[in-house]
Amino acid sequence: MTQKNSVKKELSERSETRLPIASGSFYPSDKLELTERVSDLISQSGQNPLAGVKALIVPHSGYDYVGSLYGKAYSAISDSSIDEVFALSGSFFHKLESVSFCDLRFWEIPNGKVEVSHRLDKIIHSDDPSIQNILKRNNSVHMGEHSIEVQLPFLMEALGSSFRLIPTMIDGVSPRLAANALVEQIDQNDLLIGVSELSRGYPKDYAIDIDKVAIDSILQMDTDKIQSEMFEASFPLVIAVVNEIAKAKSWKPQLLEYTTCPISQENPRKVIGCVAIAYTQ
After folding, report:
1. Where do transmembrane segments lie in this chain (predicted)?
2. Residues 6+ apart with CB under 8 A from 105
3. Among the residues of 160-252, which ranges form H helices?
4. Which of 120, 128, 232, 247 is most buried, by CB atoms within 10 Å?
5. How far from each other are the two terminal CA atoms of the chain, in whole angstroms?
6. Sorting pLDDT into bands at 50, 70 and 90, what band is 8?
C-alpha cells in the first residue's frame, strides 16, 4: 500500500470511528495505565470464570468508584469464547422511542479499537412488521453517552480484541417488543450486556433497602415489578429487556456483587446502588 493510500485509509477509518468521551474521567486515558488497571481489577476480583454466561447487568459509574464490581462481572466471562457483544444502554441526554443502533465501523478507546458488527444492517432492516418501526440507525445519540464505552476496556481484557460490538440504546418502547426485536439475533456465541445502575441519591442504609427489593425482582425475573414505580434504576427498561430475553432463552440470573458508591467525593452521604448480575445457560 502506498503512503497516499495508507493516509486515505486512515482518514476514512477516522471518519467512521466513534471516539472516546469518558477517558480521563470515568477511566484512565493512558493506554498502559488503563490496561494494567483493568487487568488488576479482573485478576484480583476473587470471582472465578462461570460456565455458560450469556448476559451481564453492569453499572456505568467510574472505575474509581465501582472498579471491583466491574472486575467481578468481567472475570465471570474471562474464559468465554464470544463472537459478538450486544451492549444495551439507555440515554442520559436524549428522549428516544426506539431501539437505536450505532453503525460506525469502530469504537475507539485508549488501548485499541473495537469493530462494530457487520450484521447491523440486517438487524436494522428486519422483515418483521411488528418491530420495523422501532429499529433505528442513530449514531448521533451514542456520541455523548459513556455507558457502553466504559465497558470496552473490560471486554477487551476479558475476551481479547476479536469480538465485534453491537451498540444499542433503548428508550420509550415496550420491553417485550424490544426483546422480540433482539432475541432471535443473539446467537449461541454472543454476549448480552445491560448497562444500568439502581437507586441514586439516597443515604446508604435506605439505598441498600430499596436496592434489595430491586435485586430480588431481577433474580425473580419479574418484568412487571422491574417496570413498576417501586423499582428504582437509571435504566429500568434496559434491565427489563435483558430479563425478557433471558426468559425467552431460559437463562438463569445469579447475583455476583452489590455495592454502593458515593454520588461524588463532595457528596459522600448520598450514594448510587450498583449491581453485577450474570445470566447463565
Report:
1. none
2. 13, 16, 17, 115, 116
3. 175-183, 204-219, 223-226, 236-249
4. 120
5. 46
6. very low
pLDDT digits (tens, 9 = 90+) for 246-274: 999 999 999 999 999 999 888 889 999 99
Cα 246 to chain centroid, rounded: 15
What is the residue type of 11?
L
Give the Cα separation of 96 and 118 in Å (integer). 24
User: Distance between CA atoms of 34 and 155, rounded to whole angstroms?
Assistant: 13
Nearest to 56 by CA among 254, 213, 261: 254
> How confident is the model over 104-124, as pLDDT tens digits?
999 999 999 999 999 999 999
Q: What is each CA distance from 22 to 26, 70, 124, in whole angstroms? A: 5, 16, 27
Q: What is the pLDDT of residue 159?
A: 97
Check the CA dihedral 16-22-28-29 and report its sign: positive
Instruction: Tell me which DSSP letter residue 23 carries.
Output: B
What's the structural domain count of the chain? 1
What integer pLDDT is reported at residue 266 of this predicted model? 86
Question: Residue 215: which domain range?
Answer: 3-280
* Three-state secondary-structure class, residue 218: helix
pTM beyond 0.90: the answer is yes
pLDDT at 60 over 50: yes
Residue 126 identity? S
Q: Which own/partner pairs from 257-264 qualify as long-range (CB within 8 Å, at least 24 positions apart)?
A: 257/47, 257/68, 257/69, 257/72, 257/73, 258/211, 258/215, 259/66, 259/68, 259/69, 260/204, 260/207, 260/208, 260/211, 261/61, 261/65, 261/66, 262/65, 263/200, 263/201
CA pair distance 20, 126, nearest whole angstrom? 30
CA distance 142 to 22: 12
